[in-house]
Design brief:
The protein has five helices and seven strands, in the order αβββαββαββαα. By secondary structure, the chain is α/β, with parallel strands linked by helices.
Length: 219
């Protein structure tokens, strides 16, 4: 194994371990098996902050590097793969300054794939891109300005449940109040995005009506 390859593996592993350690306060974190670049590195299950019960799941693709990323350089095959997953996927950048301090002094940036995918859908369909208070990438830190900064608590217990609504609307046309945020402040449905997925929403309604009509006919 060459030195450059060993260095790359070390940096990648250090970034994943650092992110997993930060997430572990809020989630059960499982590594996805190494050896293949599947587009998913961590599989996380949120621990409810009060009851400590396990709740929502999400996936992370982790990148560890010194510079910020440009999502424009990501190949379509990855967007397609992420968009077909059963739960929301987030691209996480562990941005470090020094190689030997990755696990002590790195920034964690979230590139919000659910939102980016909806913006790509809008562009592909010739519609206006949806807007919201949070940018498509944001820094996890101790404060939040609703633009490019977000706390861990807001990300885990508010933003990810909101992302579920968008994820299921985009994939299946399902619009419903997510039970994980019923008792949280700012109860949020995925407003302002339904115009992108009107056809899917209507098909989901038609299918629900079809199932109910079949059940009624058997009564």
């Amino acid at each position: 194994m060459g030195k450059s390859q060993a260095k790359t593996i070390y940096i990648g592993n250090a970034g994943e371990h650092y992110l997993a350690s930060r997430l572990s306060k809020y989630c059960i974190v499982r590594d996805v098996g190494q050896g293949k670049d599947t587009g998913i590195d961590l599989y996380c299950e949120i621990v409810h902050e009060d009851s400590l019960e396990l709740t929502l799941h999400f996936f992370c693709q982790v990148k560890t590097q010194k510079k910020k990323m440009s999502v424009d350089s990501i190949e379509d095959k990855y967007w397609n793969y992420w968009g077909e997953q059963p739960v929301p996927v987030f691209l996480i950048l562990v941005k470090y300054k020094k190689q030997n301090e990755i696990q002590g002094d790195s920034e964690i940036w979230v590139y919000d794939i659910p939102y980016i995918l909806s913006k790509r859908d809008a562009k592909n369909s010739g519609k206006e891109a949806p807007r919201r208070d949070v940018e498509e990438k944001f820094l996890i830190c101790e404060e939040s300005n609703n633009k490019d900064k977000m706390t861990w608590t807001n990300f885990i217990y508010h933003h990810i449940p909101w992302s579920y609504g968008l994820w299921y609307m985009r994939r299946f046309g399902l619009v419903y109040p997510n039970p994980e945020i019923v008792n949280q402040q700012n109860q949020i449905l995925v407003g302002g995005f339904s115009y992108l997925y009107k056809e899917k929403i209507l098909k989901a309604r038609e299918y629900s009506d079809f199932l109910m009509s079949r059940e009624n006919s058997n009564d």
